[in-house]
Amino acid sequence: VLRVVSGIPVFLERHMDRLEVSAKLLNHSIAGISDNIRYSIGELIKANNSPDKNMKIIVYNMENPIPDYMVYFILSNYPTSEQYDVGVNVILLEEERNNPNAKVVNSGYKERVATALADANAYEALLVNRGNEITEGSRSNIFFVRDNKLFTAPKGNVLMGITRLYVFELCKDLGIEIIEEPISVSILKEMEGVFMTGTSPKILPISTIDDMSFSSAKNSIIKALMKRYDDIIEDYIKEKTIG
After folding, report:
1. What's the CA gap between 8 and 237, in Å, rounded?
2. Degrees (nearest 5) of the Cα angle 139, 121, 212?
3. CA dihedral sign, ordered 149, 226, 190, 215
């Protein structure tokens, strides 16, 4: 899933790279259809008068010499300004992806998550593995703040989200250390702030995890990352529009 803003598919290059990585993890490749996908994205944006919405790319029949694909706009929901200012409520959910590094369609998993979110009236679910460790969100990556450092699950255990990659780059520029290690549920109360990253939420503070509260929206590190990431998106759109 990628986001279209002002007629520009944001970070298209990185999304295409991640699609190729997912294909390779399944012992396939999208190299033969990569240019066609890019062309279809451009045509779809023009045909729909450049809506500010999310677009989904699905590649299937991977066993064929040249796979098939679909590109289409999807129902898109973005956080409100209040949610960025205050944070959102999330829940813990005992669930694991079978192949976390590959983004693969899994309808059963989506249905279980959707039911849990609806029952709890929550914005997102944090996935907890059999070791009682938080790996990622159901549709996002998760970061924790403590002692001016960020903590997140190791890259081998999570989907390598595009926004996650930008957070790593921003932290390098800002001199903020990121520690990749398993995050046990038992140490959540030691954290000073929590945020999620993703195509739709961008960088979004988390105010509660089940019955635990966090002052994430007021955390200086999280606020700085939110501002810098918004600037990156704005600069990308300007560059592509001029180009």
Report:
1. 6
2. 85
3. positive
- Per residue in 32-65, pLDDT (tens digit) is 999 999 999 999 999 999 999 999 999 999 999 8
CA distances to 12, 39, 42, 51, 71 from 47, in Å: 18, 12, 9, 10, 13
H helices within the chain, ranges in order?
A: 12-25, 34-47, 81-86, 107-120, 162-174, 220-242
pTM comes to 0.91
Q: What is the pLDDT of residues 194-212, one digit of tens each?
A: 999 999 999 999 999 999 9
Give residues with Cβ within 8 angstroms of 118, minimum separation 6: none
Q: Which residues are bridge partners to 89 per DSSP?
A: 208
Please tell me the chain's helix, strand, coil percentages from 3-state DSSP, rounded to the nearest 5. Answer: 40, 30, 35
φ/ψ of residue 137, rounded to 5 = -85, 165
CA distance 69 to 40: 10
DSSP designation for 107: H
Q: Which residue has the tokens 């300007």?
A: 238
Do residues 1 and 105 make contact, with C-beta atoms less than 8 angstroms apart? Answer: no
